[in-house]
Design brief:
Elements (H helix, E strand, L loop, with lengths): L13 E6 L10 H17 L2 E8 L3 E8 L4 H20 L12 E5 L1 H13 L1 H4 L14 H6 L10 H4 L5 H11 L6 H13 L2 E2 L2 H11 L20
Parallel strand pairs: 4-5
Antiparallel strand pairs: 1-3, 1-4, 2-3
InterPro entries: Transposase_17, Transposase_17_sf
Protein name: Transposase
GO molecular function: DNA binding; transposase activity
Length: 233
Amino acid sequence: MARLQRIAPKDIPIHIIQRGNNRQVCFGSDANHAAFAEWLKEYSQKYHVDVHAWVMMTNHVHLLCTPRKENGISQMMQDLGRRYVRYFNYEYKRTGTLWEGRYKSCLIQSDRYLLEIYRYIELNPVRAGIVTNPKDYHWSSYGINALGNVSDLCTPHPEYLNLGRDSDKRRKNYRELFKHQLSDTVLEQIRKATNKGMIVGNDRFREEIEALTGRRVKEKKRGRPVGWRKPKI
């Protein structure tokens, strides 16, 4: 099946995943994580992309962002990826590719699914068995969103701000969301949408995105279309 073309219209949240080639290590030390975070901040600001949540694992990265201009996501990811690869190759005396081709992404319906994506991203180290509580994993946005750590990389999304009238209430309500893991159904929905470049949202949202972009965001059925066989003569 042909891969759906990536789209990232401005002001629509997007979940991004970038993996190491063949799932190889792309972060070998805290210094690597710190370098990536610093350049993520630089290029997100340069290309007007709000970054709401992230996690940097050993061999991949998840981001939740909202572009504030057209092509902001692709420009940010291209510059960030190239700069980090040059740094990583120099640091480890290696050559060649680091990333598994182009990044994967899916658009998110804010009012229904955005906070699920926050949780999906920041619970990644828990699902991987690295920690039992997301607060114990340093290279994610959980410390900012849930605990109030200061960061000039993180921009809160309006759905996050709606969790409470003040920062203490918001953080408390945000932590409440993490008392339970995501269901297998939600996990599968997010993973499938991201891998196939679709959306996480309902039919109305899908129709709005297709009308906005003129591009298909719904997976085609497998197999040949009905009626494809030529009539016998």
